[in-house]
Write a structure and sequence with these properties.
The chain is an alpha/beta fold. The chain contains twelve helices and 14 strands. The protein has an eight-stranded mixed β-sheet with strand order 1-5-4-6-7-8-9-3, sandwiched between helices. The chain has a four-stranded antiparallel β-sheet with strand order 10-11-14-13, covered by helices on one side. The structure holds pyridoxal-5'-phosphate.
Length: about 400
């Protein structure tokens, strides 16, 4: 039976971020799509329109909870996904990162137990490590459907953590999506045990066929706090995210204000104009087609070039593939070899708080060009063959 434990995050986010734009590197490690898939022209037009309308106001201090019009549009978008909230019940954040860090710092004291998916996003793990939390990793079910419900219920009931952090759609790195018919059940289990859920929704808009109903749709905000951003669906450089903290609204908005007073106004206004002219849905349609094509190329190349027995559960959208190897490989060595030939991938270990039993790697199919993606995977495949 798993027990909660203190841990030290094994990777530093800053090192990944600094590697992101290294010239000439075929970067299959980063968590972002390619520049050509960002709606740069539409965003600069939206920014121009916002500046023309509001002038100097855009460059002054602003309301700490974020641009009023944007908050209303975000609430309307959530309502379409079954979440009944008003704009006044959410606040904008500087990326999803700030939503996570605000909610965790409001909820978690040193030594508190926090349940997480295993594997989980390493940026979130670094925040937990800094907060001195003890983690309770919940294993995934292996069917692409997120945490294994029976084991999760048993562990949550036994340890009653302060909260559960879960990326409900296309989780990073596993690509797992909590099935629509399991969401309410998970919320009810947590509500019954008094466990707060922090639902990270950052990839939901990339799910093929449209964003699922979030877990927050099955709650009134007393159990689920919701964080998201437009970093994966529009542009990471905008740094616009938002948080629906529910009953923790007062503590969360005060903490956010302590951290940075408010988020950047010009980018919020640009996003508001972009959303107001309904530019997001056509953009998402384009992204879903592009991502599906990239994933198919990635899967095909992995089947051709990676060792027999390599498993990749096809995710329901997005651009990440999570590869599991039948044999234990020294992936640090494979990474060094691939790096020497100008290719980067993300080592699976950094997404775990304790060493996993098998070897994994996360591969981004959408940042490099299609030709680079194939070449990069071929190079990793031969580095894997050499490491056997
Ligand atoms: C699951 C998850 N949450 C949050 C973030 C951070 O998002 P942002 O860039 O909006 O701060 C990421 C970035 O990769 C992520 O994968």
């Amino acid at each position: 039976m798993n027990e909660p434990f203190h841990f030290k995050a094994s990777a530093r986010l800053i090192d990944f971020m600094r590697q992101a734009d290294e010239p000439g590197l075929i970067n299959l490690a980063a968590g972002v799509p390619g520049l050509d898939s960002l709606p740069a022209a539409a965003l600069s037009e939206a920014m121009g329109e916002a500046i023309a309308k509001e002038g100097a106001r855009l460059f002054a201090y602003h309301h700490p909870d974020g641009d009023h019009g944007l908050r209303e549009l975000l609430a309307a978008r959530l309502e379409k996904r079954g979440v009944a909230v008003k704009g006044s019940e959410l606040f904008t954040t500087t990326g999803c990162t700030q939503g996570l860090s605000v909610m965790l710092s409001v909820i978690v004291q040193p030594g508190d137990v926090v349940a997480i998916e295993a594997p989980a996003y390493y940026g979130m793990l670094e925040i937990l490590s800094e907060l001195g939390a003890r983690v309770l990793p919940l294993p995934l079910g292996g069917d692409g459907g997120g945490v294994e419900m029976g084991i999760a219920e048993e562990l949550l009931s036994r340890w009653k953590p302060r909260c559960l952090v879960i990326c409900s759609s296309l989780s990073n790195p596993s690509g797992a999506t909590v099935p629509e018919d399991g969401r309410e059940q998970l919320v009810e289990i947590c509500r019954g045990l008094g466990v707060r859920i922090i639902e990270d929704d950052i990839y939901a808009e990339l799910v093929d066929g449209g964003a699922p109903k979030p877990m927050r749709a099955f709650d009134d905000g007393s159990t689920v706090s919701f964080v998201s951003s437009f970093s994966k669906s529009i542009s990471p450089g905008l740094r616009v995210g938002y948080c629906v903290p529910g009953s923790l609204f007062d503590q969360a908005t005060a903490r956010k204000c302590q951290q940075d007073l408010h988020s950047a106004v010009p980018t919020e206004a640009a996003l508001r104009e972009f959303l107001a002219k309904d530019a997001l849905d056509p953009h998402l349609e384009m992204l879903r087609v592009r991502n599906a094509r990239r994933r198919a190329i990635g899967m095909k190349t992995i089947t051709r070039c990676f060792p027999a027995g390599t498993r990749v559960a096809p995710p329901r959208g997005g651009y990440m593939l999570w590869a599991e190897f039948a044999a234990a490989h020294d992936l640090a060595q494979v990474r060094a070899r691939a790096r020497a030939q100008g290719v980067a991938f993300a080592l699976g270990d950094v997404f775990y708080t304790n060493k996993p039993g098998t070897s994994y790697m996360r591969l981004n199919c959408a940042k490099a060009t299609e030709e680079e993606l194939v070449r990069g995977l071929e190079i990793i495949g031969s580095a894997l063959a050499g490491a056997d």
